[in-house]
Amino acid sequence: TIKAQTTKNAYLPGEGILVLGSTDPNTILNLELTDPDGKISKRKDIFSDKTGKFSDGTFRVPTDAKQGNWILKVKSGVKFIDAEFTVSGTIEKTFTIKLDKTEAYHAGDHMSITGTGADKSNTIIIQILDPNNVKIQELQTRSTNEGSFDTLWTIPTDKQSGKYTIKAVSGQVNAEASFDIQ
User: Fold this and answer.
1) pTM of the prediction?
2) Is 180 strand, coil or helix?
3) How far is CA 176 from the centre of its chain?
4) CB distance 86 to 56 below 8 Å
5) First vs last C-alpha separation in the chain
6) 15, 28 in Cβ contact below 8 A?
7) pLDDT in tens, 46-92
8) How far apart are CA 139 and CA 91, in angstroms?
9) What burial letters (b/e) apply to 74-113, b meaning 16+ CB within 10 Å?
10) Quick one: pLDDT at residue 132?
11) Residues of the chain with CATH 2.60.40.1930
12) Label partner for 5 (CA 20 to 30 A): which of 73, 91, 108, 143?
């Protein structure tokens, strides 16, 4: 027989999964992680030790995991057991942009625009809109493989006072920030 269980009943996307169990000594076991649709997410072979115990902590719930009941199947020949667990919630990837200061800028100032939560290694399009919501400048930069970015913008000397808006777009997500020019 095979006995196996995950150390938790519920996981969030991106979390590591530890499975513990026992079977016959020195046995090869096939582990399969299956999503709620029955698609195999990952496979791996491991061995039980000389007392029949086994553990594996290399499986991870995918960061884009579908919510629902997942199965970690442990097989050896015709023997198998399903260790079931639930994936619930999502890790919200919030796309945000920040400016280097909160007080008003002046014409000719250098503005640092930074952001996090963008699509990884992607083009970021940044639009700067005047107080009448008219686009006055469009910048492009690339996000890192962690989804962060930064760029500089020099405020033109001919810009009028007022509240300006910065819109940043990364794939399907966008973010906004506003600033004043005095």
Assistant:
1) 0.51
2) strand
3) 20
4) no
5) 76
6) no
7) 999 999 999 999 999 887 788 899 999 999 999 999 999 999 875 55
8) 29
9) bbbeeeebebebebeeeeeeebebeeeeeeebeeeeebeb
10) 95
11) 3-87, 96-181
12) 91
Q: Which residues contact 97 (CB under 8 A, 6 or more apart)?
A: 113, 114, 115, 126, 166, 168, 175, 176, 177
Which tokens in the block code for residue 37?
A: 């649709």
Torsion of CA 102, 106, 112, 117, to 10 degrees: 50
Q: How many residues in total does the chain contain? A: 182
- What's the fold here for domain 96-181? Immunoglobulin-like (2.60.40)
pLDDT value of residue 92: 55
Rounded Cα distance between 143 and 49, Å, is 45
DSSP bridge partners of 152? 112
Both structure tokens of 74: 């442990």
Tokens of 16: 């590591």
For domain 3-87, the CATH architecture is Sandwich (2.60)
Relative to beta strand 79-87, strand 10-11 is parallel
Q: Is 172 left (phi over 0), alpha (psi -120 to 50) or beta?
A: alpha
- The DSSP letter of residue 177 is E
